[in-house]
Amino acid sequence: MSDDQEGGFSRRTVFWLVSVAVVSFGCAIGFAIFSDEVSSESGAGSHTFSRSAIGHKGLVELLRDRDVPVLVSEHDTASKVKDSALVVAEPVLFEAEGNRAADLAAMVGAAPRALVILPKWYGTPDAQEPSRVDSVALVPLDEVQPILDIFPVGGGVVRYPSDSSVVWQVSGLELPIAPVPDLVGPQVMDSPAIQPVLWNEHGTLLGVVDLDGTELWLLSDPDLLSNHGLLRGDNATLALATMDAVRGARGAIVFDETMHGFKSEPSLWRVLFEFPLALATIQAMLAALLLIWAATGRFGKPVVAPPVIAPGKEFLIDNTAALLRFGGHAGHALRRYLQTTVQEVARTLHAPSGLDLHATARWLEQVAETRRVPIRLIDLEREVDQAGQARRERERRVVDTARRIYRWRQEMTHGSGDGTHNR
């Protein structure tokens, strides 16, 4: 198997598979972290998904910024509040299938601490930007009162014109400032059963009542902690103090959204195919399809790659020549080649025995003159010396001299080019 293949897959294929897998995993993590940012389900209502003026997403984000554990529940909220504080912001009872009043009572009864925020505004979504409200209107008091009537506290809900001269009083909240809620047309409760926590001469804005083991907090005006209200005056400080008092030492807060129609049965398959995780699911499927596609044409025995070292004399000669050239030994090899050739020619022509090198060279020169060989041995020896000493164009001169040695050998043993033959 070649170096660029691993287990039947090319390195390029493996690279792309790993890349797609990493991107898919990264997208899944990113969507899991930022799903609230890209979700488009919220609309412009008075719930914790809404970024509109009357929504409560700002409160959730403010609490999370303070490291308060927050859960937004869309299913079976009663089972999640046994060890947490429950918050039901502006529940809707009149657009429901079933008995939402009974559901709200059961939910509050299951929590050790609970805060119910009475509704105040209707919002009309903006046609160009559905996550914002184009206009708002007050919820009629006869739609607010039934929510208070779910709990046995008696009394009613009243509204009065904004008045900066109203004196607010507080009991049970840890505040660094004087309590001055900034509200538009304040909405308060008038009930002797509710213990006032934040109130004025017109009634109670925030109160608490012990309801069969549940510490029930009631907030009559949502402007104290809605998105637009948090930006007014010292409302944000009052809102945080209220949430700290409600959650007490238990810490975690569960915001219920089933009262706004957000009901979602837990389902892994449904979540995987819903925005935004559907995008990560699609990428994972594409990675799987790419893996199948890459493997489809690679079944069977892998093609054996050619050996790194090719067989044959030609390759051996070329490789040896390259090594000699790389090591700078071409001159030595050329001299050795001449000596070997001289000995071979002398043996082939049956030179007299007992001759030394110089005598053998003189004898061969005489034979060359007789056979009219144009190449002189003495010239070859001089060319070999010059080729070994040359710095520039060494390779070309070595090759040319080697060819002349070969030609000299052929003419000495087989005859010169003018037709003279060996005798």
Summarize the structure.
This protein has 423 residues and is an alpha/beta fold.
Give your account of this protein's structure.
- By secondary structure, the chain is of the alpha/beta class.
- The protein folds into two domains: 40-274, Rossmann fold (3-Layer(aba) Sandwich); 313-414.
- The protein contains twelve helices and 14 strands.
- It has an eight-stranded mixed sheet, sandwiched between helices.
- A hairpin with a 7-residue loop joins strand 6 (121-125) and strand 7.
- The longest helix has 28 residues, at 11-38.
- It is rod-shaped, with a radius of gyration of 49 Å.
Number of domains: 2
The gyration radius over C-alpha positions equals 49 Å
Largest sheet: 8 strands, mixed
- What's the β-strand tally? 14
Give the C-level CATH assignment of the largest domain.
Alpha Beta
Structural class: alpha/beta
* Global shape: rod-shaped
The H/E string reads: EEHHEEHEEEHEEEEEEHEHHHHHHH
Strand content: 15-25%
